[in-house]
Design brief:
The complex is a heterotrimer. Chain A is mainly α. Chain A contains three helices and no strands. Chain A has one domain: Helix Hairpins. In chain B, helix 2 packs antiparallel against helix 3 and helix 3 runs antiparallel to helix 4. Classes of the chains: A mainly alpha, B mainly alpha, C mainly alpha. Chain A: It is found in: Cell membrane; Membrane.
Chain lengths: 99, 281, 631
């Protein structure tokens, strides 16, 4: 098997995640889909690292994880405060662009 | 041509087997993440996919990342998700009905188009030569990463640290609510209740039903009507009040069924079953 | 002597100003002031005429430059008068007949409380008409042309309390506007072609100009002439113009103004000579109108409308002659002058009859008037004999000359035109005899009117009969006087030029044929109206008679073709405006509005919609990248 198949898998997961972001209304699930997309990218980075024979790809994946963690923290905080005011976690409820 | 280099071009049969099996599950998990109606199920499926991805990291020679993926991602971040899901309501199921006209078709079209393009791009790229991570990992994967992080990527690393701290502070700022007045004591609350005169006695207790945890069952008022006031406010807002009005009939039906089986009365006269008031006469 | 020319115009203009501005305090003497100033003009004309006669035939053109009117670069318009033999003829006709009619009006309008104003308008008309014939360039002529149109409008509608008179005035004005458009276009064409519109430069450079342009100018001038002279197809206003007071009909709508078209064509003879197509059009218009007017004249029971049809027909003769070119110019003017005498006389006679008959105009209610108003009968009868071309009277010479000239045109055209002219002579004899018989012969047919007043026919006062007598004398002798030694021909030839056509048949034969036509026409009329009593109520009549009573459906034609057509055109233009123009404007607005509505829907506030756009954009970027690499 050619390791390039990992890349196809990463592309597939990324696409599924992106479609999920567009389809789901629950903000938490949307975040999960974003996480899925980030993970797909990480997989691609790791495979690239193997392809080039150095560790830079893994470093980038590492940073991605850190950024993803930061993003999740802030994002979930936003969801919680939204839920507090609206009693709903639906992203469509925020369509008036104000609290 | 060493065996190491050869391994870079193709993978071992074991790895190929692992890829196809786990890869299938990863895709299924991703699809379930998107399609599950309950957020908690989505979270569990995503956790599964992430663990599989961790295995793939390990297979690709990224040992440190594989472990971090399990410990930090699946263990910490996903648990954070679960906490929030709990907060919002574990059992709350989303409606999968689309409300924005054409959104679903547009999303699917874009997704399919994007996927096709990505595949085409990967297929077109000359990705036949794989150097393999053998030489890079010669001194150990963690040591290699550490050497890079603290030399070449040290500034990025420091900035990322700053980002993390900012995120932590931001999360606290977002969720923190400044209390602008002193918390009221029980005495003050009781006095207010008397002043307003709406509910002078304590709220009524929820209904009691022997076979269930009965907190989510509305209690009956003296006139026999169920009162939503008896259910906890959180449950009420989530719409998780259970209706038990049909329980007794269902139980009776199950009892009849079992009795009929026991007595080997194959044909039950529906009239007697359906009109118990006549039968009792 | 040159300086007297302006005074010709100034006298009646002064009269008009004094009478119209002077107000009521001039009511008592206003009519005499008007008559005096008109006569002054006539006397001045006689003085100038005497002066012209004292000169050689070649030097009889006088000019008077008053001031430069519009000096704008190459566009130079002068107020200059030109008095030559042609203008002189018109001046004498206008002022002479005009003065007589002023005098007549003193009696005719005696009981009209607005008589002063009437004389003011008459003087205004004289001034405008003199300006028209004395102008040395077409622009100044246009001023006079419009001036007579204005005076005509004011005088037709003089009895404005009658709705029919007001309508007739408007009709005349509107139809005349069509002709005026022709004249203004002709003047513009002249300016672009010759760089001037003075008679001198325009008429002397026709040789070195393309025939197409000259034809265009000629046709436009013909349109103008049609409007003013009531020629087909702009003839419809003349019959209705008889709503005006009878002196007006006599002066303006018979003797002078309606002949302005003939003057214009003869004056522009050089242009028509160089444009045979335009000339042919002129003859055709003349021939058609000749027959048209004659047929209408046969059917009318209203004495003034019958005479109006006759006027139209006689002017048709003149236009026909003017269209023949140098063969006919002199005879056109000669017929114009003799016609001025006898037609003015006839109208004044008709006015006299009406005066005595309580303003009754229906000839079927006349009859046997010869004994009641003998002077009117005699003068009218002389005018009648003159118009039908009774031998040795005015009409005989002038009409005969035109018929000869028509035959002299040569070829098939000559035969056709000559035949039409002969036919016209026969019909003229018929309808004029009819008028004569119905009015003055037979039994009296008048009845008491609604209030029980029986008319008492009586002879008119002297102020009315004297002009009639003078005009009758003119009707009898003018033709003979002009004809004797070809005086008129020699007088006008230096201006209009003259050439003898080669007639296929001899002059004597034509004269004989004309006389035969005359006898036939009179005979038929006698058989129908003289021998049998005339019914008081008009019989139903043949199809042609009924059509002729409706002016040969001219108004119906105008209504269907012009009014309806105009309405349809307007409606379609409105439709085009609503659908196309407004459609484009509103469509643009609606398009922008609709587009904005659609675009607004994109901004729905749903984060997921925005995400779709971003995702789609990202997909496009990837596609673009791949495509760039593939290329």
């Amino acid at each position: 098997m050619n390791p390039v198949n990992y890349l196809y898998l990463a592309a597939l997961l990324f696409t599924i995640g992106a479609t999920g972001v567009l389809i789901r209304r629950n903000a938490i699930v949307v975040f999960m889909c974003v996480e899925l997309m980030l993970n797909a990218c990480n997989l691609a980075f790791v495979v690239f690292s193997r392809m080039h024979g150095n560790l830079d790809g893994q470093i980038i994946a590492f940073f991605t994880m850190v950024v993803a963690a930061a993003e999740v923290v802030v994002g979930l905080a936003i969801i919680v405060s939204l839920f507090r005011t609206r009693h709903s976690a639906s992203v469509d409820d925020a369509s008036l662009m104000k609290l | 041509m060493s065996a190491l280099q050869l391994a870079a071009y193709t993978t071992s049969t074991g790895e190929a087997f692992q890829f196809w099996v786990l890869g299938t599950f990863a895709v299924i998990g991703a699809l379930c993440t998107v399609l599950m109606r309950k957020a908690v199920h989505s979270a569990l499926c995503l956790a599964g996919t992430m663990i599989i991805l961790a295995v793939f990291y390990l297979a690709n020679g990224a040992y440190f990342l594989g472990i971090v993926q399990i410990v930090v991602y699946t263990g910490a971040i996903m648990m954070l998700f679960l906490f929030v899901v709990m907060l919002v309501g574990v059992t709350a199921a989303d409606s999968l009905k689309e409300t924005i006209k054409g959104q679903r078709w547009l999303a699917l079209a874009c997704g399919v188009g994007f996927g096709v393009l990505l595949f085409a791009g990967i297929g077109n790229a000359a990705l036949t030569e794989f150097a393999g991570t053998g030489r890079a990992n010669a001194n150990g994967n963690v040591e290699g990463l550490a050497a890079l992080i603290f030399t070449k990527y040290v500034f990025a690393f420091e900035v990322t640290g700053a980002l993390l701290i900012t995120a932590a502070v931001g999360a606290m700022v977002l969720t923190h609510r400044e209390r602008t007045e002193r918390a009221r004591t029980q005495r003050e609350m009781a006095e207010q209740r008397i002043r307003e005169g709406r509910h002078i006695p304590p709220l009524p207790a929820p209904g009691v039903y022997a076979r269930h945890n009965a907190v989510d069952v509305a209690g009956l008022l003296p006139d026999g009507t169920p009162s939503e006031l008896t259910v906890n406010k959180t449950l009420r807002e989530r719409g998780q009040i259970r209706d038990v009005s049909a329980e007794a009939l269902n139980d009776l039906r199950a009892l009849e069924q079992r009795a009929a089986e026991r007595l080997e009365r194959t044909a039950i006269e529906p009239a007697t079953f359906k009109r118990p008031e006549e039968a009792s006469k | 002597m040159d300086n007297l020319i302006a005074l010709l115009i100034a006298a009646p203009l002064l009269g008009a100003a004094v009478l119209l501005v002077g107000g009521r305090r001039l009511d008592a003497v206003g009519h005499w002031i008007g008559t005096l100033l008109s006569t002054t003009s006539f006397v001045l004309g006689l003085v100038l005429f005497a002066g012209l006669l004292g000169k050689d035939a070649e030097n009889r053109t006088l000019t008077q430059h008053l001031w430069t009117w519009i000096p704008v670069g190459g566009f130079q318009a002068d107020v200059t008068f030109r008095l030559d033999q042609l203008s002189m003829t018109f001046v004498l006709l206008i002022t002479g007949v005009g003065s007589l009619i002023h005098l007549y009006s003193v009696g005719y309008m005696e009981h009209d409380e607005r008589r002063r104003r009437f004389f003011g308008y008459l003087n205004l008309f004289l001034a405008a008409m003199l300006l028209l014939v004395l102008a040395d360039n077409y622009l100044l002529l246009y001023v006079g042309w419009e001036g007579v149109g204005l005076a005509s409008y004011l005088l037709i509608g003089f009895w404005q309390h009658k709705p029919s008179a007001a309508t007739a005035a408007k009709k005349a004005f509107l139809v005349n506007r069509v002709g005026d458009m022709g004249l203004s276009i002709a003047i513009m064409l002249m300016f672009t072609t010759f760089g001037s519109f003075a008679f001198g430069p325009v008429l002397s450079h026709t040789g070195d100009t393309s025939e197409g342009r000259l034809t265009a100018i000629g046709l436009m001038l013909l349109l103008a002439a049609c409007g003013k002279s009531a020629q087909v197809p702009l003839q419809s206003w003349l019959g209705d113009a008889m709503e005006g007071p009878t002196p007006v009909s006599a002066l303006i709508h018979a003797a002078t103004m309606v002949t302005a078209g003939v003057y214009l064509i003869v004056r522009s003879g050089a242009i028509f000579n160089a444009a045979p197509d335009a000339q042919l059009a002129v003859t055709v218009v003349g021939a058609v109108t000749l027959i048209f007017g004659a047929i209408v004249g046969c059917a009318k029971d209203d004495i003034k409308k019958a005479l109006a049809g006759s006027t139209m027909s006689q002017i048709g003769y003149m236009v026909l002659a003017a269209g023949l070119g140098p063969i006919g110019y002199v005879f056109a003017i000669m017929h114009l002058v003799t016609h001025g005498f006898f037609k003015a006389g006839l109208f004044l006679g008709a006015g006299s009859v009406m005066h005595g008959m309580n303003d009754e105009v229906d000839m079927r209610k006349y009859g046997a008037l010869r004994t009641y108003m003998p002077i009117t009968f005699v003068t009218f009868g002389l005018g009648y004999l003159a118009i039908i071309g009774f031998p040795f009277l005015s009409g005989f010479y002038s009409k005969d000359a035109i018929i000869e000239a028509a035959f002299a045109k040569g070829g098939t055209q000559g035969w056709i035109l000559g035949g039409v002219a002969l036919l016209g002579a026969a019909i003229t004899a018929f309808y004029m005899t009819r008028v004569m018989l119905m009015t003055f012969f037979g039994e009296k047919r008048w009845q008491p009117d609604a209030q029980g007043h029986e008319p008492h026919p009586h002879e008119s006062p002297k102020t009315m009969t004297i002009p009639m007598i003078v005009l009758a004398v003119g009707s009898v002798f003018a033709g003979f006087f002009f004809h004797l030694g070809d005086r008129f021909l020699h007088w006008l030839e230096p201006v209009t030029g003259h050439s003898e056509g080669d007639s296929p048949i001899g002059a004597t034969t034509i004269t004989g044929a004309t006389l035969v036509c005359l006898v036939v026409g009179v005979g038929i009329a006698w058989a129908r109206y003289g021998r049998k009593p005339v019914p008081v109520v008009a019989p139903r009549g043949s199809l042609l008679t009924r059509a002729a009573r409706r002016d040969l459906l001219q108004d119906d034609f105008n209504h269907v073709v012009l009014v309806r057509g105009g309405e349809h055109l307007t409606r379609s233009l409105v439709y085009v405006d609503h659908t196309l123009v407004d459609g484009v404007v509103n469509g643009t607005a609606a398009g922008v509005g609709g587009l904005s509505g659609r675009l607004r829907r994109v901004q729905n506030g749903f984060a997921r919609s925005y995400a779709v756009s971003m995702f789609g954009g990202a997909a496009l970027l990837v596609a673009a990248t791949l495509l760039m690499r593939a290329v």
